[in-house]
Each structure stands twice: as structure tokens, then as C-alpha cells.
Amino acid sequence: MDLLPSVDQTEIVTSVAELLREQASLDFVREYVAPGDLSGLWAQLAELGLFGLGIDPGRGGVGLGLAEEVLTFREIGRALTPGPLLGTVLAAHLAEEAGDDALTERIASGAARVALAEPYRDPTAMSGSVVSGTFRVTDLSGADLVLAVTPDGAAILDAAAVEVRSSPTMDPTTEIGVGVIESGTALCSAATSRTWWRGCALTAALSTGIAEATRDQSVAYAKLREQFGRPIGTFQAVKHRCADMAVRAESAYFQTVFAALAWSSGDPNGTHHLASARIVSTDASRSNSADNIQNHGAMGFSQEVDAHLFAQRSLVLETTLGTERWQLEHIASAQRVEW
């Protein structure tokens, strides 16, 4: 299994990274408060084909695979791009699997934004032909549709039918609300875990991007900042932290890519690999974000440095589509896993 990106994949990633640098830099993220105006950025991402990257060309997509989506979401994680990107991409796949060509094309083209709803402290929550339970809904304001997803099923609902109570969040660029959905009528649905696990792969990619971005930020600062007439990167305490950050970021990247390729190829242990990717990438983003703040010293705790932005987003992703405990329990539930 080749875990390194091809030339074509590298070109796709480069195009996305350049667009995000130009249109959604960290200066933009620092000033953005959800729900804000993302119409300009959304239109450009749609033109690039981001929302239909893994959708069949006959249904308005690009026709690539999960590997390309993972590499793209890694860049989104690096840039901390706000908005309902995850829900929209997952909803396009669900609509395609359900055979609703019109809805697939509407979502893949960016004409419809899709918020993400997942169970919130409710083990009885269900999604499929019938949606019911308490859900945490992300980025509902401005969304046209809502994707309600559980480990056993998924459904797309009209956003007007979903009401939530806004909840405070560590990350001001992410809007989160909690609400009860009872017998919601789905526009399309599927009694499958595929949407959940595809979402886990993309969430792991987002966390991996954060781990890599914070590693790069720390290394750059360690070369620039001087103390006692020397760059702080020459001091053992700092360079060892940077080395640990690099190891965590690399581990997260290769575990996530491997898991995505294994799951998409039909590996019977694919979901366990994806759960492992979530655990490794979550630890990497959380630990690297904390070390990045530490490496910046007193400046790291101030608003003047962007280090806190990565720490805030990593905390939101940590509980998206299953907590670390849920992922560990999924791995532990296996009778036998061939690694």
C-alpha cells in the first residue's frame, strides 16, 4: 500500500492550500466569529470542486476517492477553515448512495450548505428513515440542510425543521447548538455506518492538519526567537518538544491515510483502523497545540499569537463523531483484529 501522495494528488492539495492561504488566512480566521459571512469563500471552494471531490462526475462531482478527500481536509485543518464543510461533503455522499441525483448535485455544487448533527449524551438517538433523539448540531445558521448521523445510520433533513439551543463553545469560529429531533422526515436516508466512518476519516484528517500546522509554527518560532544570544531552538527543552511534535504529526498523517485506504478498499478491519486514526490524530492535535503554546512562552498565551486558535479547534474536533473513549471501545469490541 503506497501511503505517499501521487503527482495528481499533490496538485489538488496545492490548489486547495493556495486558495485557503489567499482567501481564508489565519488573519481571516482570527477575526471570524460564527455564524459569519462565508459566501465568497464558499463559492470559490465550490468552484474548485471541493464538495463533490469524491462524487461521480455524472452527478456533478469530480470522481476521486476518499484518499483525495483526506488530503484536502488535512489542508482545511491546517488553515482552520470555518464553516459546514464536513457536513456538506458527507451529505453529498449520502445523497449519492441513496440514489437522489438532484440532491447530490445540489450539495456537490455548493448550492446547499449542510450542518452536521450527531448524538449528544443520548444513547437512544437514531438516524435513518426515522430521526429522533438529542443531537449536537454544528454550524446550523445559514445551512439549508442538516445531516443527522449516528454509527448506525444517516439522514438529510430540511434545516427549517431543526431547532437548537445555542451552546457556548471554546472555538468562536464554530457554532454549536443542542436540540431534540423527533420523527424528522428525511429527504433521503440510509441505514448504514458508511457516513459515520467516512466522517471519522475526514475528522482525523482535520486533526492531523492541526498537528502539522502547530509543529511548523513552533519550528519557525524556535528559529526566529532568540534568548541569551541564541535561537531558542538550540536549547534542548525546546528542540526536544519540536521533535516530539514532528513524531506525533507524522504518526497521525500515516495512520489516517492508511486507515482511509484500508476502509475504502473494503478491509474488514477498516473501521478499527479508522478508530485508531481518530485516537492518534486527536492526541497529536491536542498535544501539539499545547506544546505550541508552551514553545511560544508568554506570547503563546496571548491573543497576539495564533497558537490558541489551534488549541480551541482541536477541542471541538476531539468530541466530533465519537469521543476518544467511544473509539477505544469500538476497538476493544473486536473479537480479533488483523493489523
UniProtKB/TrEMBL annotation:
It holds the Pfam family Acyl-CoA_dh_N. It comes from the Bacteria. Keywords: FAD, Flavoprotein, Oxidoreductase. Residues 202-333 form the Acyl-CoA dehydrogenase/oxidase C-terminal domain. The keyword Oxidoreductase applies. Belongs to the acyl-CoA dehydrogenase family. This is Acyl-CoA/acyl-ACP dehydrogenase.
